[in-house]
Amino acid sequence: MRGKLTIYMGGASALLLCSIILSLSLGGANVPIGKVWSILVHHVPYASELLGLGPVSEGAADPDETIIMKVRLSRVVLAVLVGAALALAGAGFQGVLRNPLADPYTLGVATGSSVGAALLISFGLQVWIGQLTIPAVSFLTGLCTLFIVLRLAYHKGRMELETLILSGVVVQAFFGAMVSFMVSLSKNTVNEIVFWMMGSLSMRGWNYSLIVLPYVIIGAVVLVSLSRQLNLFALGERQAMHLGVNVQRTKLIVLIVSTLMTAVAVSVSGVIGFVGLVVPHLVRLVVGPDNRIVVPLSAVMGGVYVLMSDTIARMALSPKEIPLGVVTAFIGAPFFAYLLWKRKTKGGEARG
Amino acid sequence: MIEAKALDYRIGETDILRGVDIRVDAGEFFGIIGPNGSGKSTLLKLLSGIERAQRGDVSLGGRELGGYARKELARLLAVLQQDALPPLGYTVREVVEMGRYPYQSWLGGEKEDPEELIGKVMEKLDLTRLSDRPVSELSGGERQRVALAKTLVQEPNVLMLDEPTTFLDIGFQLQMMDYIRDWQRDNGLTVVAVLHDLNLAAQYCDRLLVLHGGRVAAVGKPEEVLVPELVNEVYGTEPIVLRHPDSGVPQILLRGR
Predict the structure, then answer these.
(1) Do B5 and B21 meet the contact criterion of CB atoms below 8 Å apart?
(2) Domain residues for A188?
(3) CA-based, 20 to 30 A from B201: which of A112, A184, B24, B64?
(4) B98/A243 touch (CB, cutoff 8 Å), yes or no
(5) B99–A234 C-beta distance less than 8 A
(6) What is the bridge-based pairing of β-strands B190-194 and B29-33?
(7) Structural domains counted in chain A
(8) Do B48 and A242 touch (CB under 8 A)?
(9) What ipTM does this complex have?
(10) CB contact, 8 Å: B79 with chain A?
(11) Closest residue in chain B to residue A249, using alpha carbons only
(12) Is A192 domain-assigned?
């Protein structure tokens, strides 16, 4: 297992590095990939001496260097972090709810989190209790949403797969309307609605990445350390209990952490759908169902996925930008349909 | 080994169990029988610590069940349910290894290497050749053997069975019960089994407890319990009771009208 994990994580990290370099080179002004590489290496302390590279350029300000380090890199890093957060949340929800269709978006938690953020912004309370006001309030509204959705879906101690998704859709529709309503009361309506409903990573500086980073680290550590327990959940809650898992506590922790990941991602980037659905599933197709590998690998591949989607969002109709959530939905919604269809034809079980 | 006194269990206003006393000795093969809705499965849930009785306590090895941590309990007590494995994508080997969870540290390592034990159990249950197959591709009988292997690598002192042969053909039913009895004798295991089939229960159990409407109707050796009058009282049909030609345990023939 360890060997397998190392190989896959190595491969995924290499893929992530390639995506980062590719994404940095593409844009209004294309920078050759070789140059991107040397600029990056130049900025890693001691690396250029180690690799025997000279300084990138003699002059004070190379325009390419400015574009990459000041403009593109912050956006690229944020895309990777948001992707990791959403994919981790998806893997967590799917594992603990034993529902392959669960993800921050389909459960309505993402939209629920955006209600909190939109509320604060429309009342001008963004820094009410400091920098973390928006993530904190998003987390609370996200948690309430999750609670409502689960309450709607549980019936006599059981939770049917389709009922859960249906509850998610209903709650999401309501909260989505609330966000639209609040935004339509504010002044520069259209852009903001598009941002919250469809997600975007444009015009986000380094401080946004700094908000997200600690949560992604905490979330990854917690979910990876609970990944063995998540494997046992697949046997059913009662079996997991008989094997010594504290089921209620594990479930609570995973649900809270996954909601937190979602809320943090949403509070910096709006609602980006289906990432938590698509990424863990693709990972499972390749490596099998073992969460000890699926969870950490999903974090890295989530970064790759959102980064590539964001690059498409930037480049497809350049210089105009497509909202990021549009790109992920174009990929994610057909994928969701495919999972539904696969369940139907195989008579259940789409867990891979 | 296991002892419970005056267990009461209600769901809402409905009494499921009333004043149930039970004592199972170490190394015993103990059966719980009774008609549908008599509270058999509920009793097993109380004995295995999934649910708690409103009144009365269950103790295991002289200690109250509630006083054990989950993992600690899982090292002493394992449960095999009917239809115990959903159609998972995990391989047979991966599922069997899950049985070691209660012995693993939080990093997933173990003090002693469990390889030998896992290999032995898989060999015994004829699973070695299926090792790398996903559970979802197995037949019902094979899947139930995987579930049994998982509970055996858990190395419990007490194994509880909740109608483990319900969905199996008769050949597999006997195979399953034979595996369990062999393991019980070799390792001094205590077995508590909820069984549906009275003939199977009579063949494998040292003692039987009959539940009827949430109360204990009788406890004793199969030949003391499986008598026409009691079966009629509890199941509402008067059977013919014969001696098994091989072992002499009572066996039941049903008599239609």
Answers:
(1) yes
(2) 2-346
(3) B64
(4) yes
(5) no
(6) parallel
(7) 1
(8) yes
(9) 0.90
(10) yes
(11) B70
(12) yes
